[in-house]
Design goal:
Structural class: mainly alpha
Distance between the termini: 29 Å
Helix content: over 70%
Number of helices: 3
Number of domains: 1
Length: 72
């Protein structure tokens, strides 16, 4: 019985995690939900924050992170 539910559980988990990442990506990319979470409200600010915290080059990682958050 558990083997028949495994694909559904996997799909449900992927949807739940994806839906959790979308607001974070909207905040980092477009500035939605400005009073929550991190201080980066656009890609330039996210790139600066990434550079400051050691994830270099920030100009590469900021769009990559936003694509992952929004494209999931």
């Amino acid at each position: 019985m558990l083997q028949t539910l495994t694909p559904f559980a996997d799909a449900l988990l992927r949807v739940a995690v994806g839906l959790a990442l979308v607001p974070h990506g909207l905040r980092n990319t477009f500035g939605f939900f400005p009073n929550t979470g991190v201080r980066a409200l656009n890609l330039a600010a996210l790139a600066r924050q990434l550079d400051e915290t050691g994830y270099r080059p920030g100009k590469f990682w900021a769009p990559a992170i936003s694509l992952v958050h929004l494209g999931r």
